[in-house]
Write a structure and sequence with these properties.
Blueprint lengths: L1 E2 L6 H11 L2 H6 L5 E4 L3 H11 L4 E4 L4 H5 L11 E5 L5 E5 L7 H15 L1
Parallel strand pairs: 1-2, 2-3
Antiparallel strand pairs: 1-4, 4-5
Length: 117
């Protein structure tokens, strides 16, 4: 699950594309991705279509989920991600995200955690 500030902005685009570029590996290992922001469905659709994002983007305009996961800022949404195990446990929190390598970072951690289970 990853929270991001805004569709079609530089950092958010780099982050989403870093996940997209590893999508083959994600699907091979059964990894699901949910991106969440307060942007509208129309904005998400445009963002998804423009960058050919193969994963789900969820709308949270009232910021209920954003607040529950501690991703709310005074103005906007924090860039923060959570790696959740197949059992539903949060196993890694990415409070500082490198937008260019985030897709690879999550994949690497998932594979390391999977080996331990």
């Amino acid at each position: 699950i990853y929270f991001y500030p805004k569709d079609n902005t530089s950092g958010c685009t780099k982050e989403a594309c870093s996940i997209r570029d590893k999508w083959g590996e994600y699907t091979k290992h059964g990894i699901k991705v949910l991106g969440i922001s307060k942007d509208s469905e129309k904005s998400h659709k445009n963002f998804r279509d423009k960058y050919e994002l193969p994963f789900t983007l969820l709308v949270d305009t009232d910021k209920k989920v954003i607040k529950k996961y501690g991703a709310e800022k005074a103005v906007g949404t924090k860039r923060i991600s959570y790696l959740v195990s197949p059992h539903g446990t949060i196993v890694e929190v990415y409070a500082k995200v490198n937008t260019e390598t985030h897709g690879q970072d999550v994949l690497k951690n998932f594979l390391n955690i999977s080996e331990l289970e």
